[in-house]
Fold each of these.
Amino acid sequence: MPAYRAPRGTRDLLPTETPAWTRLERLAADLAARYGYQRIETPLFELTDVFERGIGEVTDVVEKELFRLAPRTEDGESWALRPEPTAGIVRAYVQHGMQTWPQPVKLTQTGPMFRYDRPQAGRYRQFWQFDVEAIGDPGPAVDAEIVELATRFFRDAGLADVEVSLNSIGDPACRPAYLEALIAYFQGHADALPPTERARLARNPLRLLDSKDPAMADLNAAAPRITDHLCEACAAHFAAVQAHLTALGVRFRIEPGLVRGLDYYTRTAFEFYVVGREGQQQAIGGGGRYDGLVELLGGRPTPGIGFGIGLDRVLLALAAAGIASDGGAPSPVAVVVGADPDDTTARLVIATDLRAAGIAARAELSRRKLGKQLEAAARDGAHFAVIVGDELADGEVQLRDLPAGTQKAVPLADLGREVARSHGAHHHGDGSGG
Ligand code: HAM
């Protein structure tokens, strides 16, 4: 047993695993750019207030899962690690006066989030999200555009079977009447409520609907549904979102019980599930509209919508589906070896010059014999061995094409160009250049 291990609920991403991550991060960045989202980076921690106000004080995320940082100063500020990016991004939108920019402001971010949850497969204390936010557009068209973007991400990542669950959770006009109906319903079943849920009933009845307590499943299934209580404006908005999704060919399932776990949502709400993995009760992504959040965090009333995709869960689903990713160490194009095992200087200088010319090169820095150096170069999968020998005095080295078994003298001054030219000719179009 090693003395130190990564904290519970966190993982090291080893070089065997990072290629799969890099692929998803690139896909996220490419798609976001194609859809007009610009990258924003916000701090990994914020004033606790930002999360308490933004996400809501009576939510699991804030009540149970917030990583609060121990205060280090007397100035009374309290901070927490971000459990999600939306509140911080909206804080930045307000702080930097983005309401004066052309609307909507379309922002994207991919990075680690922190929730002090009970760790299990697919639930971590540090996890990664690909997030997009479109702030300043009331929809409904942008709602469909965002959901379609998420489905394209899953498809391009290699997950063929992702289901979209869709709902509308109303707005401040229609929700109060619904909440009354909901409270009356749960009060009628007060005896069946677990104590924590009973305590929440008065403070945040909507949260009972996304309770993780199994004792709530039957009660929630029979609870009044927000979709039966939508005001005219919300109902029209919801119908238009569906019509846009249908026009885009995005299939979805109306899920009247879907309310999401964060308080800032209004109207459109959605979650993504991998078909066949529903048993895990784990969404691989979710999001929705938050038309009150900008104002809540001190800005002018401004609508917004976005999603967060859990990259850890996407990778688990890909692995479960047997979709392999290109792991393994990358092969150098050239390995610089030497007849004089002790002359590491010449080998290092030549490899450095090759790298400066843009070529992936490794210098053999061990002092083993030339034969062993060449064997290692071949094992690395290198295309060339650059052999440094007596000709170095005349400004030349031997360039050996390892797979072809051919060799020729090349002036040092031409080496970079020659390696790039021959490597490019051999590897034309296989995309694995050096
Ligand atoms: P969320 O549903 O709380 O939404 O999280 C989004 C996704 O992050 C989840 O669907 C899941 O895939 C992943 N996730 C959440 N918690 C964990 C965890 N402990 N371990 C692994 N993965 C996890 C949000 O965070 C909102 N900010 C989404 C959004 C953006 N809404 C509007 N804009």
Note: The chain has a mean pLDDT of 92.
Amino acid sequence: MEDKINSHSITDGFHLVVDALKLNGIDTIFGLAGIPITDLARLAQAEGLRYIGFRHEQSAGNAAAIAGYLTRKPGICLTVSAPGFLNGMVALANATTNGFPMIQISGSSDRAIVDLQQGDYEELDQMNAAKPYAKAAFRINKPEDIGIGVARAIHAAVSGRPGGVYLDLTAEVLAASLDTDAAARSLVRVVDPAPRQIPDPESIKRALDLLASAQRPLIILGKGAAYAQADDAIRSFVEMTGIPYLPMSMAKGLLPDNLKQSAAAARSFVLAQADVVMLIGARLNWLLAHGKGPQWSPTTRFVQLDISPTEIDSNRPIAAPVVADIGSAMSAFLAELKPGYIRPKTMWLDAIAERKRHNTERMAAQLNASRNPMDFYSALRAIRDVLADKPHIYLVNEGANTLDIGRNIIDMREPRKRLDSGTWGVMGIGMGYAIGAAVVSGQPVVAVEGDSAFGFSGMEIETICRYHLPIVVLVFNNGGIYRGDDVNQSGGADPSPTALMKNARYDKLIEAFNGTGYHVTEPRSVTKALTDALASGKPALINCVIDPTAGTESGHLQNLNPQTQVGHA
Ligand code: ADP
Ligand code: TPW
Ligand code: MG
């Protein structure tokens, strides 16, 4: 066409989305291409964003979520309509539950047809489907709203308690053209998307007074504290007060696990005995038995530091709430704290040290037992020892026994290096988290996976190989969910509901993609395979054969597993 519009004065929705993301410092997209977002992915890559293409949207979403957790910028997950959108939603919901900032951007079908339910290709009312699972959900219906829509999504994802935001882009908006001047004017550079929330000085004083009155104080660090990246201030406060601390799973390493002040090896003891507990970015949810029951004293009083006001009094009354961002609150605590004002009783510290010694000895017996075939302890001990002088390596961990025992055995010494099943205890985060962490950090990742857990995202080892990521996956192959020796109670030929393939060779899967596979049956070979794989810096999968009878049903969560009292099972 000779008289076509001068291409220099016209842009379109695709370009505007990329421009809006770039303007706000977003440099990576985790996605899966198809109608109507294929050209968006191509254009993003052409314009200098890193695009990581996955085999399933759930893993792309998990990668985006963990990227958000590690960087405090919303991780971006890009999907196609209806089924692609829904595949990503599990990750978006998981991000919201865990407080990770991410934005799922999905293309959507023709609004007029979708709303009249006339049967469009991949028809679904995506924005409304997303709402219950997202921190916020928006749809952009006009190309000139792309700038403001992206800005709203960023604010919603990272402000306050972070979470997953859904952003719906209609195919029509993506293809719509717009004058470049008007387009440029419509872009928005967000200012201060995660504003500090300064604590009320009264609340700081009240909290310090309560801690000073305690005989047996305890600090619990949660992943909100890890997310806040106020590492030095938190460490100074813990050291200045001398209060023993307990890290929640993903807060391990915020202070090194091997510090004398860590009470992790005396967890049950300190939870039951503490008279004042200070929660820093940790919720009193199921992971802390809601602060109730035999694990806790009914007279414990609480300090809770959280950015979300509605978290206060959620399960137990909070005597000293501090509603603020953790960085600001820790600075305020340090400014107000007089040396010597808070000092836990020596008897308390001695009792904890004694309990730690006792528990560590018991654990050592298990770690040192040489079992053949390997059990969880001996295999995890080998991994622990290889990682001991490599604290910069990220550790992803999911499964039941593999997760629960792994958390206890593998110490962390740097903040935000442990990434796991988190608040939902969800399976399927493994490869997505590993890829997200490797991509945003450039550091190696070791993923310790139950054989069932691995299956949820296992196909992403092709993604790992395609992008040459330094990820080593260890599959703890005990032939099943929890154990590999369960039987079909009908006596029939089908395997039991918890059984998986016996003698499966997961190591051969990665060889299909030119990665390195290892098959190991004893701890010494775990050590060698992991050492070699890490030294190579290349994708590897180590199939670790674990005694099928070693695990316990539900790992450490037996108390949450209802069991029939009638007939069979
Ligand atoms: P864990 O599972 O480690 O116990 P949770 O995810 O249950 O941790 O709790 C984290 C808490 O931290 C949430 O209640 C969240 O509101 C809070 N939080 C997240 N980021 C911040 C921050 N920057 N400042 C204060 N609180 C935060
Ligand atoms: C999305 C239920 C919890 S743990 C687990 C399942 C299926 C797997 C345990 O077996 P694995 O570990 O990984 O082999 P191990 O070492 O004990 O043998 N679907 C989702 N999330 C969860 N949590 C489940 C199912 C579950
Ligand atoms: Mg298993």
Note: The radius of gyration is 25 Å.
